[in-house]
Task: structure prediction
Amino acid sequence: MGHTALYRDPVPFRPARAEVQLEHDALVLVMPDGWMRRHPLDGMVATIRDGFVAERSARGSAETILRPHEVAVAPPRVLRRFVRMLVLEGGGERVVVITPPDQGAVAPGVVRVPEAPSDAAIIDARAWEALGDWLLVGGRLTACPITDLARLSCIATPQFAVLIGEVVAQRALEYVWAASGPLRGGLDLDSVLQPLVDAAKHSPRASEALVSALSHAAGARRRRRLSR
Result:
């Protein structure tokens, strides 16, 4: 039976991940060796593509082939590991951020996809999705729903997390105030903020965004009461 275009490989391949620290105008990548790369986002165009990374190893096959009266060296096995590539281009710079290459292998000769560059940063899938979704809407917080803002806060710097919290609060209050009234079911702030509350259980940055959101919402509510 032949392999499909993308198939699971029984041998784990989990290279070290880079860490994302997102600012409002820059992407900071801390590579596994400690090297920090800062990429300004102004003028950058984001695209998403399928790709692969080549894993060159002899795992799963003998490094030497034994024959009567001779020993021949076997070439290493090369696997094309499937990845999703987030490509940022602009100002003469090209930055590639990829998903972990452990989802499966691309069968040779079946699917033609480009190879990720050797300096591509590998980040966790959830971080990659949050970053990609945000950049594809032009890096605008106001274009994101609260669920996406909650995911984004997990990879933000402390300063950016505070700003995200303020945007979440404003968006949540708009939902609550629009749904208030005698003939409407109404929404409460806690339920609208739930995605950020859930993210804060696992992320210190999301916790900072939640504190910022609650503080901003309290101030906005107070100002609204005084203006009436």
Summary: DSSP finds six helices and eleven strands in the chain.
